[in-house]
Amino acid sequence: ATPTAVMVGTGVGASQGVLIKGGQALESAHKVNCIVFDKTGTLTVGKPVVVNTRLLTNIALQDFYILIAATEVNSEHPLAKAIVEYAKNFVEDKENPAWPEARDFISITGHGVKAVVQNREIIVGNKSLILDQNIAIPSDAEDILAKAEGLAHTGILVSIDKELVGVLAISDPLKPGAREVISILKSMNIRSIVMTGDNWGTAKSIAKEVGIETVIAEAKPEDKAEKVRDFQGSGYTVAMVGDGINDSPALVAADVGMAIGAGTDIAIEAADIVLMKNNLEDVITAIDLSRKTFSRIR
Ligand code: ADP
Ligand code: MG
């Protein structure tokens, strides 16, 4: 492609809300034959909501939610925001909820949070966090978790003073059109993969819904980058699509990093291409543009 063609390609992209940071990014995109998608906020809407609560002891629902909101209000995680939002249903003043004070708050990245509220130790997080604290998970809680995951919900466990007291199901639906995008990519001979820090059950259910066969779950940020390098090692030219801080190492590692425009600044900085309209369809727009600019008919 001539420098003019590259300029035209980048310009057309920009006019469609696909920001391509330079000729190299535009060129690499036409060779992509494998795309790794982050789950939360990329394939899904990214605005999770609490859809179900199951209590395992005789704690009152209101007390339960006030204790966990007091803990989660200290976390920036989208799941934490969903929990705090839902807990507002249990207070008088929804605009200015006065959560009790939390002491010794800690956030365990990719697992959950912990704090002391009203002299009780509250833990909110995934199964591995609860097991790491040597807290027993009764079999009915396991059943509730498995059901939630089968519905592609994320199951969150809550313990108070080392006793498991409840299970929440949080739903974050697929973006409209996600399934079609995956099917079009398949017809373009591009393999799609789901990669997430969320658990295997939920990840597999979402993958099935969207039509993706390969799933990588319970992945820490560095694992995400390593997986991208593994696919490159087996001969793929890899694009990574993500929105979070936890995706940035993988965005950098990929041949083409694509960030969702609504994502975090760190992801946008790490990416080669930014999808300003937050549409998954624009993954195809970017690749089409690159193919038109770089693959000539011989
Ligand atoms: P993702 O890649 O989907 O953005 P993360 O790596 O951020 O996922 O988190 C992985 C898992 O850790 C979540 O699915 C959840 O089970 C648990 N988790 C993380 N942060 C929190 C939190 N603040 N409250 C409850 N659970 C959490
Ligand atoms: Mg994400």
Automatic annotation (TrEMBL):
<protein>
    <recommendedName>
        <fullName>P-type Cu(+) transporter</fullName>
    </recommendedName>
</protein>
<comment type="similarity">
    <text>Belongs to the cation transport ATPase (P-type) (TC 3.A.3) family. Type IB subfamily.</text>
</comment>
